[in-house]
Amino acid sequence: MPAALHPYLNFPGTSREAFEFYGQALGATPQFLTFGEAGAVPVDDPGADKIMHGSLEVTDLIRLYVSDVIEGMSPEGFVQGTNVTLSLMGDDEAVLRSAYEKLSEGGTVTMPLEKQMWGDLYGSFTDRFGIVWQVDISGTEQG
Q1: pTM for the whole thing?
Q2: What's the confidence (pLDDT) of residue 60?
Q3: What is the DSSP string of the chain?
Q4: Fold of the domain spanning 9-81
Q5: What is the pLDDT of residues 90-102, one digit of tens each?
């Protein structure tokens, strides 16, 4: 997939409910991966059944993504009003790496662009205007 921009929504533990509602309204079936299934937290952790990543792919051009904010995931926890992230995704490494570097200038990097457990290069930051971004580059061989 070439570089694409998708909204990434965060909820305080209600991602599944929200995306089931959105899916019904938009005619699509949501897909979910929990923190426990991904091995991000132990299966007996209170956040194990919460959504680490969910997707709702309505069409090739309409895609929403979701995650629950669990304890320890963010220093400020869930904050209504800042729970929408702009997510740049795709396999065009040059374009996406450049976007990460340029958009994060003057902002605050929360995660450097680096290889993640799911195999992609991923990083996140808040730009100088307070907008939260994440960049996910799939299909890379670098680390």
Answers
A1: 0.66
A2: 81
A3: ---EEEEEEEESS-HHHHHHHHHHHHT---EEEEHHHHTSS-TTSTTTTSEEEEEEESSSS-EEEEEE--TTSSTT---TTS-EEEEEEES-HHHHHHHHHHHTTTSEEEEEEEE-TTSSEEEEEE-TTS-EEEEEE-S----
A4: 2,3-Dihydroxybiphenyl 1,2-Dioxygenase; domain 1 (3.10.180)
A5: 998 998 999 999 9
